[in-house]
Amino acid sequence: SSPAWTVAEAYALERGRVMDARRRPSRRGRWILLVVSLPLSAVAFGLLLGWELVGGLLLVLFVHEVGHAAGMVLFGYRDPQIFFIPFLGAAATGTKDDATPFQELVVLLLGPLPGIAAGLWLLAAAPSGSWWWQLGLLALIVNYLNLLPLVPLDGGRIVETLLLGRFPRAQFLFQAGSVALAAAAGVLLRDGILQFLAILLALSRR
Predict the structure, then answer these.
(1) pLDDT the model gives residue 54
(2) What b/e readout covers 45-60, taking b as 16+ CB neighbours within 10 angstroms?
């Protein structure tokens, strides 16, 4: 199986910039994107990871992104949107020019932390080996990996928000290190998607 879906938010970051620079999408357009991207991602994940994981993985990813979107709504972000990215994962986008570091931090944490809490609860409450137990394990793994300090994962963006906002050179080095680690992981795991995403991340650095 491939871990490439954990870096799907790289696409979301770039897409958010493009949407902010062009005409903002309508509410109908945002719903259409979600509805269309869901079955496409279901098929993609089924082919990539196996059909038995598809339902649980889509649910875990959706709940994760709902947490981000809820934070955006709470702090008045414009055009919050959730969509799935076939073979990669899911993402939440929204824009706010004057978002404070605290607001950005809360939005980032509202994705993985509720998922980790729910995963731990399911592991403790559900019978071992049951579908709910497996869902809890999946939620724990997905959200834990998302907190790794690598850009563009939530963990990497949290590090940027807390420590690197005032130090452009350090931020550049941190981002470059994340690209290098993604590329190395792609080579070691023989994962073409990770290698391709490493190239996209390198090209997207400002």
Answers:
(1) 92
(2) beebeeeebbebbbeb
State the DSSP code for 126.
S
Q: Answer left, alpha or beta for residue 93, where phi above 0 means left and psi between -120 and 50 means alpha.
A: beta
Instruction: Quote the CA–CA distance of 179 and 173 in Å, as a whole number.
Output: 10
Across the chain, the runs of DSSP E, i.e. the strands, are 78-85, 89-95
pLDDT digits (tens, 9 = 90+) for 132-176: 999 999 999 889 888 877 767 788 788 878 776 666 666 666 566
**33 CB-near residues (< 8 Å, 6+ apart):** 25, 81, 83
Distances (CA, A) of 146 to 101, 109, 184: 19, 10, 18
Q: Do residues 194 and 7 touch, judged by C-beta distance below 8 A?
A: yes
pTM of the model: 0.74
- Alpha-carbon gap, residue 206 to 70, rounded angstroms: 28
